[in-house]
Amino acid sequence: MAKIDFQKVEQYFDRDLARMEVENILYLAELSESLGDFNNQGKQPQKSKEQLSKEKEILVLNTKRELKFIARVRRDLIEKLGINRETAERLFKNPEKVSDDDIEEILEIREKIREFRAEVKKSLQESNIDEMIRKQIEKAKNKRFNIHDDWLPLK
Q1: How many CB atoms sit inside 10 A of residue 142's CB?
Q2: Which residues contact 6 (CB under 8 A, 6 or more apart)?
Q3: Phi, psi of 144, rounded to the nearest 5 degrees
Q4: How many CB atoms lie within 10 A of CB 2?
Q5: What is the separation of C-alpha 134 from the centre of its chain, rounded to a whole number of angstroms?
Q6: What is the pLDDT of residues 45-97, one digit of tens each?
Q7: CA–CA separation, 155 vs 151, rounded Å?
Q8: Does the model's pTM come out above 0.70?
Q9: Residue 55: closest CA among 63, 45, 66
Q10: Greatest CA separation for the chain
Q11: CA neighbours within 13 Å on the CB side: how many for 57?
Q12: Interatomic CA distance for residues 76 and 84, integer angstroms
């Protein structure tokens, strides 16, 4: 009787979680770099046009990346955020030539994305994941291949 090796599954899961954490850290580093240092806010010199355009470009690219991720997960979430194809093309087609009005709209989209992520995080924390994993492991102990699940196991 073949058993399922959950150690491999857990290893893959740990590896992907570590990769996601690294991506999140890189994203936060990009974000903090684009926003600047808040401690020296009063002491910062005026930024040049090149720096401002670079920060706008990073903001647009980060928002575009987040929207692509959400679209990959569930397409209907993009519609809930209030973004249609024409708006997305206008905002993200040419990141170098984004107006200040477009930046305001992008910041509103980013705020909606943050709210959505907070809701998802809260719902995931509320669900009892460990209990669900325990039930699945218990169910898989007597799992036989090519047999209906409702049949009784042979003993």
Answers
A1: 13
A2: 137
A3: -115, 145
A4: 7
A5: 26
A6: 677 777 777 888 888 888 888 888 877 877 777 778 788 888 878 878 877 77
A7: 12
A8: no
A9: 63
A10: 78
A11: 10
A12: 11
Residue 57 CA to residue 66 CA, distance in Å, equals 14
Long-range Cβ contact pairs of 102-106 (< 8 A, separation 24 or more) = 103/56, 103/59, 106/59, 106/60, 106/63
Mean pLDDT over 146-155 rounds to 65
Instruction: Give the pLDDT confidence score for residue 109 in this predicted structure.
Output: 85
CB 92 within 8 A of CB 60: yes
Q: State the Cα–Cα distance between residues 103 and 62, nearest whole angstrom.
A: 12
Confidence of residue 153 (pLDDT cuts 50, 70, 90): low
Could you tell me which residues come within 8 angstroms of residue 63 by beta carbon, excluding any fewer than 6 positions away? 91, 92, 106, 109, 110, 113
